[in-house]
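Q: Hi! First time doing this. I have a protein sequence and I read that you can turn it into a structure. Is that right? Here it is:
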Amino acid sequence: MDQSRFVAVGLVMASLLTPQSAIAKCEFLMPIGGDGNKIVKKRVERPKGLIGSAFGRTNWNTDFAVNQPYRNYKLFFTADSTDSASYPIQAFLKFSDGSNLQVVNESMRPPMGTGKMFGPIQAIPGKAVSQVNFKVGTAKDPGATGFSYRISVQGCW
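A: Yes, that's right. Below is the predicted 3D structure, encoded as structure tokens:
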């Protein structure tokens, strides 16, 4: 038996021996208010409103709708620009009771085209997740203004 056929047979046997519950099935979640794309492309902007202030409307937050219970979530972040500032990234699970849980809080200096998967982040027993919130940017680091990135979220059973 040639090597490629041997590898294929091995993969088939491994999948038969793996319990079905161990194979995660995931789907991308839709961003709220988006254009139908499940991958959101954004650029960190200064607050809109009061000049020179951290107050006002920003584009730092992106919410993804959760319309069914998932076992866990995977959050994906990819840098699309070469700016060298540090980019604060936060993520939250928002629950149907109005509470939330911060699941990501870090700063990154990612080279263009690279990123990170956060997770899998386990669902909280007894809590119904209604949204996953991604926040990229802060008034504390004006150097991060102009940075472009892509984000997406998967829910997995």
